[in-house]
Amino acid sequence: MLRTALDLSGRVAVITGAASGIGRSSAQVLAELGAAVVCADINEGGAEATAKLIAEAGGTASAARVDTSSAASVDELVASAVAAHGRLDVMANVAGIMHTSTVIETTDEDLDRVLSVNFKGVFYGCRAAARVMVEQGSGSIVNMASSAIDTTNAGLVCYSTAKTAVVQLTKTLATEVGPNGVRVNAVAPGWTVTGMTGRHWTAEDGTEDEARKAAVAAPMLKMSPLKRVGEPEDIAYAVAYLASDAAKFMTGQILRPNGGVTMPW
Ligand SMILES: NC(=O)c1ccc[n+]([C@@H]2O[C@H](COP(=O)([O-])OP(=O)(O)OC[C@H]3O[C@@H](n4cnc5c(N)ncnc54)[C@H](O)[C@@H]3O)[C@@H](O)[C@H]2O)c1
C-alpha cells in the first residue's frame, strides 16, 4: 500500500535548484519513484548533468534554465513543462542561495538578492504551479525552508527572514488551494553537505580539504542527538514523501529532517 502511495508513475515534477545538492537529489529520487522530471536551474549545465544522471539510471528527465528571481522566467518554466507533458503534479521550489552579514552590514543589494531568490523565487514557483494545479484539481507543492526558521543566528538575517517568509507563504497557500485538491508543504532541513555548505572546504578547482570539512561539520554533529549531519538524499526523501500520495493528509506542514537539532512543537 505504501509502495503504491509513493509511486509517482505518470506524474510530472518540476524541480528548481536541480543542478546541485538537495535539488539534484530530489530530482533523482522523484524520478526513481517514476515521475517525469524537469530539472531546472540557473546553472543550465548542472541541470543538464542531473537530467543525464537520471536518464542513465533509467528515469525520465529533461533540463531547463530558470532564474527563479524572475517571475517571467518561472512562469515560462512552468508553461513549457505543461506544454511538454500536459500536466503538472509536483512543483519543488528548492533553489536558494546563502548569504551572511549582520543587519548593520547588510547592503540594499544583498537584501534584495537574497529575498529575490529565497523568498520571491519560491513565491513565483508557488503561484505559477498553483494556477495550473487548481485548474487541474490536483497537485503537490514542496517548498524549501531551513532549520534557520527555528533558530536565531547572528549574521543570517537575510537568509533566515526569507526562509521564515517561505513558511508563511506555504501555510497561506495551503489554506487557499486545499479545497481544490492541491497540497502545499515545506521542508526545513538541518545542516546538509552540499555545494552551499561545501564552499567552506572546497577550492575553486573542486578539491576538498577534508580536515577543514571535519572542522566545519564538528559543531553541527555535536548539536545533533543522532550525531550526524545531513546528506542530500535525507532531504530528498522528505521532498518525495510530501510530493507523493503517501502525504495525502498533509498540507500546510513543515517537515524537519535535521538530525534532531531543533524540535519545535
Ligand atoms: N545545505 C544546507 O545545509 C541547507 C540547509 C537548509 C536549507 N537548505 C536549502 O536547500 C536548498 C538547496 O540548497 P543546497 O544546499 O542544495 O545548495 P546548492 O548550492 O548545492 O544548490 C542550490 C541550487 O540553487 C541554484 N540557484 C541559485 N540561485 C538560483 C536562481 N536564481 N535561479 C535558479 N536556480 C538558482 C544553484 O545554481 C544551485 O544549483 C536551498 O533553498 C537552501 O537554502 C540547505
From TrEMBL:
Pfam families: adh_short_C2. The keyword DNA repair does not apply. The keyword Oxidoreductase applies. Keywords: Oxidoreductase. Belongs to the short-chain dehydrogenases/reductases (SDR) family. This is Beta-ketoacyl-ACP reductase. The lineage of its organism: Bacteria, Bacillati, Actinomycetota, Actinomycetes, Kitasatosporales.
